[in-house]
Amino acid sequence: xxxxxxxxxxxxxxxxxxxxxxxxxxxxxxxxxxxxxxxxxxxxxxxxxxxxxxxxxxxxxxxxxxxxxxxxxxxxxxxxxxxxxxxxxxxxxxxxxxxxxxxxxxxxxxxxxxxxxxxxxxxxxxxxxxxxxxxxxxxxxxxxxxxxxxxxxxxxxxxxxxxxxxxxxxxxxxxxxxxxxxxxxxxxxxxxxxxxxxxxxxxxxxxxxxxxxxxxxxxxxxxxxxxxxxxxxxxxxxxxxxxxxxxxxxxxxxxxxxxxxxxxxxxxxxxxxxxxxxxxxxxxxxxxxxxxxxxxxxxxxxxxxxxxxxxxxxxxxxxxxxxxxxxxxxxxxxxxxxxxxxxxxxxxxxxxxxxxxxxxxxxxxxxxxxxxxxxxxxxxxxxxxxxxxxxxxxxxxxxxxxxxxxxxxxxxxxxxxxxxxxxxxxxxxxxxxxxxxxxxxxxxxxxxxxxxxxxxxxxxxxxxxxxxxxxxxxxxxxxxxxxxxxxxxxxxxxxxxxxxxxxxxxxxxxxx
Length: 512
Description:
This protein is α/β, with parallel strands linked by helices.
């Protein structure tokens, strides 16, 4: 019998909570698994090929060694695809820490019912951008800025919306309520809506708005005083609109659902979150969303805006720069949540390689450094992860590598699931752009802590002294590849028990 079919039959015969892994599942041969490049620069485009994506996910991603229990699975931009998928496959994907998502459309109700019937979480993920929801009015003339008719206006300005057309947001909210009403009537429990709506007015053009008399008159004068003032205003306005007209309707029908949206995060004047272009996000506070959604991308745009001009890239410094980029939004958002809204959880987007520029010569982060970054993201208050892995026909192995790396790092940390569930973040400090010191992250409860140390350079300190609990001091040594410790609180006057954990297992043949 095919080993994979045997594994699937075992999974069907023994349901596991939210698709926890079966220890009996055999590993199929790895020869058919594409191997991602791991050089300083992106691999050359691959020749055209048939991509057996669902097969790759089963053959090239091992089942989790540690149970997720009630924790969220990982969600992928290009995860398991629904076409031709069996119930056995759905359970096998869940055993690997992933489930397919649904869209907030009535046509996906049968898919949501299947997930629910199998005991898997129903998570909505869909994207909307550019002119949404203004373009629901139809003809662009019905919702665009009131620009003068002369020929000096750029054509694309004429597709910029009037940002305060709240009637169109209300129309979008009513349509969303109709979908949710159908979901509820079908008996579907929506566990989460982790959305990717990233259009206007968050990207509203300042100069175009200034040229539109009627639309401009609706905006407070102080918000138009400078480009910086307007950029803060448009971000705050967009978050408020998304809260009222997207998060609000979802929570009307599903009050307990986890709800977030693209780059909804907490920022403050005291602890501002840096954008990819190194602008400070304005003061952003809690809304009707239940989770924040910071972004940890190895994106070329952020690298180009950060890397010193004229400096020749080399592996160690490139990895350190990306480590800074990946940790900064999640860490500062986590600090602001702890200070302003500790009841919120975080569901960041993560990815090692994201292309945004036409120039493809930007260096990329190594997979080893990326997995290290993922470990620290989990230890800084992350409740779940969305992985951005668009399937590119030119680089399909890289899309698979994003899945492999995210699953491998999550599996490592699931061994300490209780600390992920209940631990307090111990360190929010973000390493500098070319910081060669010691990076550390940790979680602690009243009696247990988990700490991860990682040297960013050869001259980094070889040990770290920490006070884990009042009067409970430890000295932790670090090896070149990073070291993790479990620390148990001692009674008064005694020393805490320090257990050095084994190094993360080397990737197997299916985790290149």
